[in-house]
Structure prediction request, 90 residues.
Amino acid sequence: MATTNDQKKQYVKEYVRSLKAIEDCIEPYQEQKRELRTEFRENGWLNTDEIRAAVKAYRLYKGKISIDEVIENFEIISDQDDSSSGNANA
Prediction:
C-alpha cells in the first residue's frame, strides 16, 4: 500500500494511464462485437434476447460453471423474490 498521499496519487495516475492504454487497444474489438450483434439482428438471424442468451451460455461454458448450480441459485432467488412480493408458491 502507498504510505503517503503523494504516493497514492502517483499510483492512481499510473493505474489510470495503464487502464486507458488497455482500453484503447480493446476498443477496435469492442466495435467488432457491436457490428457483429448489429449484423445478426439486421439479418434477422437472432434477436437481442437470443444474442444475450447465447452470450450468457458461452460465458457459463467458458467459466466452467455448473449449470446445476446456476439452476439451484436461480430457484433460490426466484423463491426469495416470490416470497418478498407475497406470491410464495409454498
Summary: The CA atoms of residues 13 and 37 lie 35 Å apart. Residues 5-42 form the longest helix (38 residues). The chain has a mean pLDDT of 88. The radius of gyration is 21 Å.
